[in-house]
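Example protein as discussed:

>
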Amino acid sequence: MPELQKRLSKFMESLALGDLMLVVGVSGGPDSLALLHGLAAVMEGEHVVVAHLNHGLRGRAVEDAEFVRKTAVSLNLPHYIETIDVADWAAQHHLSLEEAGRILRYRFLAEKARECGAGAVVVGHHADDQTETVLMHLLRGSGLSGLRGMQMVRPLPEANDLLLIRPFLHTTRNEIEQYCKQHNLQPVQDESNENVDFFRNRIRHQLLPLLSAYNPRIKNRLQNLAEIVAADYELLDQLLLEAWSDLLIKHDGSWLQFDKAKWQKLPLSLQRSTLRYGVKQIRPFQSNIGFRTIEQARTMIEKGQVGSQATLPGETSLLNGYEVITIADDLAQVPHDLPLLLQDEPQVLTIPGEIRLNNDWVLQAKQLESFDFTQIENNPDDWQALVDVQTDH
C-alpha cells in the first residue's frame, strides 16, 4: 500500500466511524482526486459518495463536472453533480466570489450528505492550504479561532449533526501531486488558481515566496503555530462556552440577545470572543471577523449611547440596549428592550397613574407634595425624572 494510503487508512481508522457513509467533495483537482482515489482504495469502494458543485465561473467548468462524473463511474461510486450561479449569489449577498463559493459548496455537501444518509463530509484541504489559511487570518486580524487554521475534524458549518473531515491537513501539495503521478491520475487544472485577484492566490504566489526568503521553513512554522494555537484554543473555548451559556437570553434564528451587565463583567478576552461567537451563531460560515470590527463593537457597548448600533460582518448588526445586547441579521425583526410605546398614537398618562409599554415596561407618574431643586440636580436614579407640573385651579 502506498505511503499516502497508509496514512489515510490509519487516520480514518482512528476516527472509529464504523459503517458511516461519507460524502467526498471532489473538484477534479489534484488534492480532491487523490483523496477520492485513496479513500476508494482503503475503504474498498464502500460507504463513499462523490459530490461535485459546478460554480459556473470557469470556461471549463462543464468539462470538469463531466470529468468528475466519469471518475466516479470508473470507481463504481454513487455521485451528485450540480450547478449553481455563484457570481449571482455573491452579488445578491455582497460577498466575494471566494466567500460565496465556500458557503455554497459546504451547503451543497451538507444537503447531499443528508440526502444519502451520510454522517460526514470529507474534503481535500492539505498542509499548504493550512499555511495559506493561517496567513489569511493573520492579515485580517482574526482572533485565536482564525490562527488555529482548519481542523482535521469538526462539525460542518450550519449542519452540526454532520462531521467535516480533512485527512490531508498534514500532507503537502507536493506529496499529493506525486501520488497522482504514481497512480497515473490526470487531475484537471484550475486556471483560476493562478489569478492573483483572489486573496488566497496572492498569498500563495506573492507573499509566501517572499516570506520563504526570510525563513525557508516558513510553511512548517505556520503549521506549527496553528497546532499550538488549536491546543490552547480548546481550553479557551470551554471558558467561552461556559460564559456564553450564562450570558445568552434568547436565540431566535436570525437574532440573539445576551445580558449586558454580565458581559461587562467578563475579562477583556471573553468580551471579544463572545462577540465573535455571537456573530458566528447568526452567520456560521462567516470567516472574516477582524479585530477592528470586534473592538469597535466592544467599545460601543462600553462607551456608546443606549440605542446605538455597530455594523458587523455578514450583513449583521449589534444593537446596544439598556439591559441586553442584540446581534441580528440586518433584515431580522428584533424585539427591543427599550421602553417604547405599544401603539403609534399618543397615550394619556394620568397623575397619579401608569401606562404599559413594550417588554413589560411600565411608566408611572405621581405628584410629590413638596421637593426642592437639589433633588432634581442630584437625582441618582437613571429611571426617575422629576419635572415641574403646573396645575390650573
Remarks:
- The chain has 14 helices and 13 strands.
- The radius of gyration is 27 Å.
- The domain at 3-224 is CATH 3.40.50.620 (Rossmann fold).
